[in-house]
Amino acid sequence: MDTVHLGDDLGIEASTGLKERLAPYLDRADAVVLDAADVRRVHTAGMQVLCAFFASRAGTGHATQLRGSSEPMLDAARLLGLGPALGLGDDSPDPSNATHASTVENAA
Prior knowledge:
single chain, 3-stranded parallel sheet, alpha/beta
């Protein structure tokens, strides 16, 4: 099992670097765990990179997990409806109750 630390910033400026950091793990047969414990800032572009990574690995039958998710990361997943795509399940609380909604940014 490989573990990749996501760091504290999943902002749009970091999305290219995130994609490059995850690329070597796309075809790994072993499970890949993404450690999101330190994430403090989340942008929709960063979430798109994560969703694409999960989808690509799932398409080839490889397991991927998001572990140790910070509150801003969990709130972003809830607000964007991405919990199931990131393996967080569908039992997320109502997005209107997100406590760190201000950390989720959108490029629009």
